């Protein structure tokens, strides 16, 4: 009878393709929006993820996320270094000065000042030049997105100059950092120079980056630092999630994406549910005839579920293909790089669409189960 | 008149033009007539369907409608039994009860000696699947299946492999004069052709009781005669009973027995032949 179920499903091609389109569109929309949402949220901790030399971030107790920092005192660095289990600790500056090119293009930029001696936190993925050239005076490494923003349409070239707070700096490298949350250029410089790119304040140190000695876990080290110094210490992973939670709680981003995802879900449920329901209802006479012939309710349920799963699978596969194509295209764009189709979203949306088609088919199944087989005798 | 009735039959296989069926029914009729002279009761073929004081009502209280009011009815094997009467007299309800599609409110129904209502639900479905075939007024063919596939549905429901089921159905369609249309979908078939597919579907699993509900109601005169001829010749077998519900007196001449029904009761039986 599976063969009969499949022929019934594909016989009316308009409804068949309508069902597949509804599910494919919902799948695409859900995967698209949820992956973009996850990608944007992941960007809130991009600069944290790029630091691979230290796993503990120390900050003021009031600091909640990467973009919002309260400067630490210079002595805090020494206090952290004095905590047992710290292999090393270095300072890190983060500021957002305005960078101008010789042609007059300008943009606010995220400047990260690295420890002069060790350059811990420097970008490791370089597209042009070397991060070690940061040791040269008045030098910065700029990310590709920032370079394209400030020098639109120009080829990658080292030696170009930027002006920040009356300081002229030279580009000695182009990095491939993780895309930042705001599309500002990301520049790395030595700490001693970076602090001059902003108006001078009494305290400039945003973070202390620390590494645990062998045998001490990062989490244990954060506890020790907090106990010893009263400062807030987080592992890199914890700090990234802090950033995500901050944006979730304090911005309209989740609401906006949530609305879109809810609409996609409702459209998926209503359109595919209604189409499938109507499809079954229009075939009630045939189902009645099958019941009269001696096809059991159990078999009819199997037939309807098979129909639902077939359209669900094909629609889901098409939708996932569309979403994958979308991200493949946009992953190559500077503004949307790093936003990818996450396997978690593929699996999650798959489970959701499975729920949608099963829910839709259950509505239809109910009509078939209560159908009186004697109704086939009524013309 | 003769020309009109014989023309549509000219395309049918000669063995289905009444010869086989008439021979079979003649045998039984003659046997019955012979026996009737001596002692008709013990010689009569065993009834395929026996209804005793069958009652059926729908609704409760003031809204209760009595559709069957103590029906006594028999349909014998080897016979074409017509159930006739005005609209609303309870014909369709009676065949639904006989087919086990509706439960009675009172009385007893036996099909081949089996009280189907006493069977558990699954066994009742199995009994229906094995022993009953249906022909409906509106054919109720699945529009996306070919004629052969539609005719094969009872076999598929019984678990027969698709290829074997469709082959058997196709063979039957050939016997019913549909060899050229076996791969056509119902919307490409005429009303008469669709009813022949429905007949093939009712016969393909060789059931012992065939129930037809107004099988000619949607057909024109010529097609009606052809379909009834086909039904009489191919469906009626010595070990099979056929019940036809109709209110079309133009096809009454095909019947062996006509049970007249009115207001929920069988008023009288009319034996032909």
- The secondary-structure class of chain A comes to alpha+beta
> Ends of chain A: how far apart?
25 Å
Protein chain pair with the most extensive contact, residues per chain: A-B, 26 and 34 residues
The radius of gyration computed from the alpha-carbon positions of chain B, rounded to a whole number of angstroms, is 19 Å
Number of domains of chain B: 1
Q: What's the alpha carbon Rg of chain A, rounded to whole Å?
A: 29 Å
Low-confidence regions of chain A: none
Tally of discrete structural domains of chain A: 2
Strands of the widest sheet of chain B, in order across it, are 6-7-8-3-9-10
Judging from the principal axes of the Cα atoms, what is the shape of chain B? globular
Number of strands of chain A: 12
Number of strands of chain B: 10
Please name the CATH topology of chain B: Rossmann fold
The main sheet of chain B comes to: 6 strands, mixed
Mean pLDDT of chain B: 80
- SSE succession of chain A: HHHEHEEEEEEHEEEHEHEHHHHH
Please characterize this protein's 3D structure.
The complex is a heterodimer of chains A (379) and B (273). With 379 residues, chain A is of the alpha+beta class. Chain A has two domains: 2-43 and 252-377, no CATH class; 48-250, no CATH class. Helix content of chain A is 51%, strand content 17%. Chain A is built from twelve helices and twelve strands. In chain A, strands 1, 2, 3, 4, 5, 6, 7, 8, 9, 10, 11 and 12 form a twelve-stranded mixed beta sheet that branches. Chain B has 273 residues and is an alpha/beta fold. Chain B has one domain: Rossmann fold (3-Layer(aba) Sandwich), CATH 3.40.50.300. Chain B has nine helices and ten strands. Chain B has helices spanning 2-6, 19-38, 40-43, 91-98, 121-131, 147-157, 162-175, 191-203, 221-234; strands spanning 47-58, 65-76, 80-84, 106-111, 114-115, 132-135, 209-213, 241-246, 257-262, 265-271. Chain B has a six-stranded mixed beta sheet with strand order 6-7-8-3-9-10. The A-B interface holds A 1, 3-4, 7-8, 10-12, 285-286, 288-290, 292-296, 299, 372-374, 376-379 and B 92-93, 95-96, 99, 101-102, 122, 125-126, 128-130, 132, 134, 136-138, 140, 142-145, 149, 153-154, 156-158, 162, 201, 213-214, 217.
